[in-house]
Specification:
single chain; 764 residues; alpha/beta; Beta-Lactamase; Alpha-Beta Plaits; 4 domains; eight-stranded mixed β-barrel; five-stranded antiparallel β-sheet; 28 helices; membrane; transmembrane helix; Rev_trsase/Diguanyl_cyclase
């Protein structure tokens, strides 16, 4: 198949042979006419026979072209293409040879100037026609040229007429020129075929990506409508159409807001004033460049929450949530938040509120019982979960009965709650530790009495841990931890017993307090440090940012994991001091780096509780270091965004106005709502490392990463994939559209000294 490199190019070249059947028919008929003309003028029968042969060949060639055109050839095999190629070649060669024979005889067998002239003109014209029509197969052109130029040249030389030899020489030069032109056109056709193939591949890739994006958009729980800069509809998903009772034809691309308002009213889902409110929300957002939200009620009774945000390209992003179920369940959720549905006792959260209220009273003296049923799992396993539920209800009833004034436990302000599972809490007024222990034994006795569960009678044992206030703490958390440690000791003592919090148990609490004191000392003396891990361009490995990670090297205990000391810092409020230090130190370190490299600092939900102080700490760090605010990135997690959303959003916007950028960290590890990406002004989304771990084997992880990348691109955000440890993972995320990556493949966290040395070595 000559020098054709692949099937597609071969198919395109062969297809070009059949691209103009009309010109082939015209040229063949012209050739037949020339032969007939010579026959008529000369009277020689040889021209008649040649005309007959040419006519037969012409009919066969027309039939070949007709059969080719009627068939599809995109999926044809190389052998199929080769058969069409050879069939065309055979017909063209026989026809050219027939015509060449006629030209030869016109010069040799006749003395008619008319025959000589018309055959010479015919030969030259056919040479040009072959080049134009058959350049896809230049070797065909050469064979066809030889089939009639060789006989023509031979006839000119044999005729021995004056100047015919010169004409023969001209024919040689002309034939060579046509061969050169044929190869040139062939190269152009090959280039065109390659370009067409690339275009088709690109179109197919775009089509697949669009299908993926459409699938993602149409499986969203929110209705989505994207508007262009001039406030015309670009994209809507199926959920949007469903919520507003619209058809695809109602909101085609290019639909204006005024047209959308009319469609919303015509769908009988919104009243004219409500539809007008939705459209005005969009226009107000565009004018003020500030997100807006509005709750509306549809004619069908649905409660819809409409949120409009600015998109990265200057357009608008409208999200519609059906909040009907959420609103309808609000009262139930409130009840569930405060009451255990099975036992009807206060749940752990409500009990904590009651405990805090009691501890806030002056001269408070109370005992907290942490009650756990022994081997409750065995009841579930042997008698079934239904029996287990009945057991819990009976236990709750008996504990409530103890509050009626019987025995040691006095009626009044005592309360019982369910902590969870088979664990209960009881709060009673006591005057001494001895009284608390006596009350605990009374609880053991009451719960040990046989219980009737269906057809079975069951006796259970219980373990109880007791903590006292004020002896064991004034804070609910401290008291609960003390009772928990006492319960652990009761379990260790063989169960079915009461254990009060003691000095031995306090050792564990003492260790925690020691850790807290050491942490405060480490913060005061500067024993904490920051290590930096690079965030790089996933394609070029060029460092774009470094994430600051806090480390604590204890002088006696060595490296303390962040998972151990950060919770202590948050619980004690020390996180504010540590966070301010980390911001300041990270900015000071980053000012010595290249201006294209930023620094990322994690900010916890605890720091956002005092948003004004956090904002002040950021401003101070930037002022002291002189760092450009655009080079500081604050990373927040999704857990921060589900509480006190308005205050959080206000703080983020305040810092954004001075140039500080924000990243959504660990996306996909927790609450994972696409609405967070749309609502909050993030410049970057960091996809959790769990997706990278399963990237090569899990198509779901790849699809999620690709969809997040596409949506982030639309909103003007960058995407970082965390946890990249292999080259294969890196290649996968690049193919899915991620711009940046972080992980051990690009470097482990380093202290600033080691990092600066690495930077200097790289620069050198």
């Amino acid at each position: 198949m000559d020098s054709v490199e692949n099937r597609e190019e071969y198919r395109v070249l062969v297809h070009s042979l059949f691209s103009s059947p009309a010109s082939m028919v015209v040229s063949n008929v012209t050739g037949i006419f020339v032969l007939v003309y010579c026959w008529v003028v000369s009277g020689l029968s040889v021209f008649g026979w040649l005309a007959l042969i040419a006519s037969f060949v012409c009919i066969l060639r027309v039939n070949t072209a007709r059969r080719y055109i009627k068939r599809a050839h995109l999926a044809a095999t190389v052998f199929d293409i080769w058969r069409w190629d050879r069939e065309f070649f055979l017909g063209a060669t026989v026809f050219s040879l027939t015509l060449g024979t006629g030209i030869f005889f016109s010069f040799v067998a006749t003395t008619s100037d008319a025959c000589h002239l018309i055959t010479a003109i015919c030969g030259i014209a056919f040479a040009s026609g072959y080049v134009a029509r058959n350049a896809g197969r230049p070797l065909f052109v050469i064979v066809q040229l030889l089939c009639f130029t060789v006989p023509m040249i031979a006839g000119l030389l044999v005729a021995a007429e004056p100047y015919y030899a010169s004409i023969a020489g001209y024919i040689v030069v002309y034939a060579i020129t046509n061969v050169i032109i044929a190869f040139s056109l062939n190269r152009n056709l090959l280039g065109l075929a390659a370009a067409q193939k690339k275009t088709n591949e690109l179109a197919d890739s775009i089509r697949r990506k669009n299908i993926t994006l459409d699938s993602a958009l149409n499986t969203m729980t929110h209705g989505l409508c994207m508007l262009s800069r001039d406030q015309r509809i670009e994209v809507v998903n199926s959920r949007f159409l469903e919520l507003y009772g619209l058809g695809r034809s109602d909101v085609e691309p290019g639909t204006t807001l005024d047209e959308l308002e009319r469609r919303l009213v015509q769908s009988h889902r919104l009243t004219p004033p409500t539809a007008r409110d939705v459209i005005e929300l969009c226009r107000r957002t565009a004018v003020l460049a500030q997100a807006g939200e509005q709750e509306i009620k549809s004619e069908t009774g649905q409660i819809l929450v409409v949120t409009v945000e600015m998109a990265g390209d200057g357009g608008l992003l409208m999200l519609t949530e059906d909040a009907s179920a959420r609103k309808a369940a609000a009262s139930q959720i409130e009840r569930m938040a405060r009451c255990d549905l099975l036992t009807q006792l206060p749940n752990r959260f409500r009990f904590a509120e009651l405990l805090a209220e009691r501890l806030a009273e002056p001269a408070c003296r109370i005992a907290l019982f942490y009650i756990d049923l022994d081997d409750f799992k065995g009841v579930n396993d042997t008698m079934g979960h239904e029996a287990g539920d009945h057991l819990l209800i009976e236990v709750a009833s008996r504990l409530n009965g103890l509050l009626g004034g019987r025995g040691v436990i006095a009626e009044g302000r005592s309360v019982v709650g369910r902590f969870g599972g088979d664990e209960f809490l009881m709060l009673i007024d006591v005057s001494s530790a001895e009284e608390a222990v006596a009350a605990g034994r009374e609880v053991l006795g009451v719960l040990a009495e046989p219980m009737r569960l269906g057809d079975a009678t069951l006796s259970i044992t219980t373990s109880i841990g007791i903590a006292m206030s004020p002896e064991h703490g004034w804070e609910p958390g401290d008291l609960l931890r003390a009772a928990d440690m006492a319960l652990y000791a009761a379990k260790a003592d063989g169960r079915n017993t009461v254990v009060a919090y003691t000095r031995e148990l306090a050792d564990a609490l003492s260790h925690r307090r020691e850790m807290e004191a050491d942490l405060r000392e480490a913060a005061r003396c500067g024993r904490l440090s920051l290590h930096y891990q690079p965030i790089v361009d996933a394609r070029t490995d060029q460092v774009r940012s470094y994430e600051a990670l806090m480390r604590w090297n204890h002088p006696e205990k060595g490296m303390i994991p962040p998972s151990e000391f950060i919770p202590i810092a948050e619980q004690t409020g020390l996180i504010t001091q540590l966070g301010a230090w980390a911001l300041r130190q990270a900015c000071l370190d980053a000012r010595n780096w290249a201006e294209t490299i930023s620094v990322a600092v994690n900010v916890s939900a605890s720091q956002f509780k005092d948003a004004p102080q956090l904002i002040e700490n950021v401003k101070d760090a930037l002022l002291i270091s002189g760092l450009d605010p655009s080079r500081l990135e604050l990373e927040v997690t999704e857990s921060l965004l589900i509480v006190n959303q308005e205050a959080t959003l206000d703080a983020i916007r305040t810092l954004r106005r001075i140039g500080v950028r924000f990243s959504l960290d660990d996306f996909g590890s927790g609450y994972s709502s696409l609405a967070y990406i749309a609502r909050y002004p993030f410049s970057k989304v960091k996809i959790d490392r769990s997706f990278a771990e399963h990237l090569t084997a899990d198509s779901t992880s790849r699809s999620i990463i690709e969809v997040v990348c596409q949506l982030a691109l639309k909103l003007g955000m960058r995407v970082v994939v965390e946890g990249i440890e292999t080259e294969q993972q890196r290649r996968e995320i690049v193919a899915l559209g991620a711009e940046q990556a972080q992980g051990w493949l690009f470097g482990r966290p380093k202290p600033i000294g080691d990092l600066n040395q690495s930077i200097r070595r790289t620069a050198a």
